[in-house]
Amino acid sequence: MQEDWHPNPTQRVLHQRLRNRLIECFELFAEGNAGVRDAGFAEYFCAFYDWVGHGDERHSFELDTLNEPERSAFDRMFLLLETVCDETPDLMPEADFIATGWPTRIAAEAAPTLELFLKRGRFSETVEQKEPLQEY
Question: For the segment 98-132, what is each residue's pLDDT rounded down to a tens digit?
């Protein structure tokens, strides 16, 4: 379904878009080693942290588009990724990162998180919705 893009989205639509971006991040993380190879080491993390912030710079947002189980799953993913970042160098070759086993451990948490988010589906990128519609 094609939607008209609005230059001044409401706060709700921005939250809907952010939830959709989180789903995309969880899709990447759920791919495990393949996700690292596809995105590259830095982008593997930046894809997530660009949206939510990192460490002390974590954005203090309360997404009204997340239900309680999704919020809990998001928090677990955030804490896991913070641990990974604390225990790995800022930059390293993809093969070295894969050899640490972290992508497999991340995928083990990301897959059920992704499944949880996809149960409700994606929100519209332009129209306010109370609940997501599956075609978005």
Answer: 999 999 999 999 999 999 999 999 999 999 999 98
Tokens of 126: 């332009």
Which residues are CB-contacts of 119 (< 8 A; sequence separation ≥ 6)? none
pTM of the model: 0.89
